[in-house]
DNA sequence: CTAATCTCTTGACAATTATCAAGTGAACTT
DNA sequence: AAGTTCACTTGATAATTGTCAAGAGATTAG
């Protein structure tokens, strides 16, 4: 593992506060891999021998059943993923593939479990990270259960406008078919929903979205802190 | 807090391995409450000052948005709930109400966070419990995203037949409208789905379900370890 | 440059799911 | 015992969502 990779992940909340010696034990035997786009990293059901940290690129976590597939989450740098499977030493519930050229740091799961017992700061950070992930999935579940697809889309657009600094126009961060899958709908349905949102002040051209007036969209979306705010 | 309550929760995996002194610090200032059925315990958005442990009865965790409501989980004894909110010191994402007369042990959240830092066995148990909860929500999310309502119902029935020891006939563990809400469907829809399952060997009379032949139902439900097995 | 591939869009249609209204039967209240 | 309430069921209908097919436009490979 190169010095630059070590530095990069060291600043993550999950590693930031731990002792240097514990961090060294954690990344002993770790390695880094670079993948081209559209590569499968692992498949659901496999054993999770490494905690993964994405340092560059984009990774999709998806699940399959009966020839159906759904996007569970998009991982963006710099963040860890698969913490729960690592802790439990249990098989992955999701599969993963790169969407862009990606760089992944792999920390042996055994190290994670060992150092968890030895370093309090790390233990605290791990449990906080896990609690945050848990709350993230619960929010996503509420989103799917309580809202129709057009309501989910409206909230998605508002969130990404905020992330884009509130600019009237911004680019969608993903292919539309991935957005559709993430929102639990078909690409056809997404296409039609975007047209319908024209009546609510949303203009769409390719990957570009323009929201001329947030008012109508907000009245439709009714964003709620306990569903849409990632920090609460 | 009475001696019997202390014993009861002490045997939970989350408390079983910790030192006696740590356990004592944990339940200092704890108390126990008994609630009649249909009582609201707390509402989403409120601060989580206590880790809850249900020792008797049944509690529903539900979420609301825009006058809609959905059941997120049914808590059965003996188990803890609200661990993630406790750890993060963050507001509840769900509301809770009793479905039966229930007994709840309340452990101050501050104690949980403090003892987490002091007792390794407890820290390990907390993180494992949280990881298990996380994986539970992910499975539930896969269930909702990848399956139609009748497929979810078919899997639900098969699971409860197993829990009932595999007997041909067994009683539903909840009111049908709660089952409907848990499965993300309306009561009307559940009623019709149960009729449809008649073609798959399911007989229903009130709270009683009889599955004369699991074959057809299994072919419809296609249960998967990574969605339906709570232990994997 | 051309052909092939792929995403996105649109239309027609089908399946799924929800809503509204009414009726039945059981449990509970007075 | 009679009345009330409530869960559940059923029918009719509407809304939502998915499927299939075809075509436009962009990108990529040769």
UniProtKB/TrEMBL annotation, chains A, B:
Domain HTH crp-type per the UniProt entry, residue ranges: 147-215
GO cellular component, one term: cytosol
InterPro entries xrefs: cNMP-bd_dom (IPR000595), cNMP-bd_dom_sf (IPR018490), Env_Response_Regulators (IPR050397), HTH_CRP (IPR012318), RmlC-like_jellyroll (IPR014710), WH-like_DNA-bd_sf (IPR036388), WH_DNA-bd_sf (IPR036390)
Keywords per UniProt: DNA-binding, Transcription, Transcription regulation
Annotated PROSITE patterns: CNMP_BINDING_3, HTH_CRP_2
Domain Cyclic nucleotide-binding: 14-133
Record NCBIfam families: PRK09392.1
This protein's name: Helix-turn-helix domain-containing protein
Taxonomic lineage of the native organism: Bacteria, Pseudomonadati, Pseudomonadota, Alphaproteobacteria, Rhodobacterales
